[in-house]
Amino acid sequence: MFPEFFSSAPVIQTRDPLADFLGASPEGLLEYRYEDAVRLAGHSCPTVASAFLMTRCALAALYQDSLPVRGEIRVDFADDQAAGVTGVIASIVTLVTGATADSGFRGIGGQFNRRHKLFFNQPLTRGSLRFARLDSGQSIEVAADLSGVPMDARVGELMQKCQQRLARADEQALFRELWQDRVKRLLLDHADDASVFQLFPSEVAHG
To answer: 20: domain range?
Structure first.
């Protein structure tokens, strides 16, 4: 169904107390794979891959040798929800962290509330997103600089021909291959590249 390299992409492991409480998963252990992000977004592109990898990078820095606790993480965006690809990135962040603005699960008996943990138009120092642990207040900012992982120069022209329905079958196939090649390089070659996925110290989160 998916390109073969999807299955080789990094996996994000979390522990979700709600999943444990309701018996969805033993000890609440959940794994999120790039395929899950693609199913949610409906497509695979550098933005979807970057959102997945930025989340992975930030959570690894915050939790070190322990599993991220899904539902107990606050996420702040520097941009407005409607700006550019912010909404796409936010949907991937919500998938992995459980954090929502005001539409998530209300909780049970005062526990497991997922609302009011995702915020936009927030003052950040250098990153485009900030992840914070609600148990300790520790936070980290993250940004993606994809300039070091360029798209093949042929993609622009091929995309235009495909959009105008002027591309031959072989050109359509080449466009798709080149488009996913950049995604593949991000996921397999640059997932742990600090020059691409950049972390910045952040103030302790409040509120």
So the answer is: 4-144+195-201
- Give the list of residues 6+ apart from residue 45 with CB closer than 8 angstroms, or none: 179, 183
Rounded to whole angstroms, how far apart are CA atoms 156 and 107? 46
Q: 180 forms bridges with which residues in the sheet?
A: none
Q: Are both 54 and 99 inside the same structural domain?
A: yes
Whether the predicted pLDDT of 187 surpasses 80: yes
How far apart, in whole angstroms, are the C-alpha atoms of residue 53 and residue 32? 11
In terms of DSSP H, where are the helices of 13-154?
A: 17-21, 34-41, 46-63, 86-97
> H or E segment at 176?
helix 169-189
On whether both 174 and 111 belong to a single domain, the answer is no
Query: How many domains does the structure of the chain reveal?
Result: 2
Q: What is the pTM of this model?
A: 0.95
Q: What is the DSSP letter of 148?
A: G
| CB-neighbour burial class of residue 25 (10 A; exposed 0-12, middle 13-18, buried 19+) | middle
pLDDT at residue number 204: 58
- Whether 37 and 95 have beta carbons less than 8 Å apart is answered as yes
Any domain includes 207: no
| pLDDT tens-digit readout, 83-139 | 999 999 999 999 999 999 988 888 888 888 899 999 999 999 999 999 999 999 999
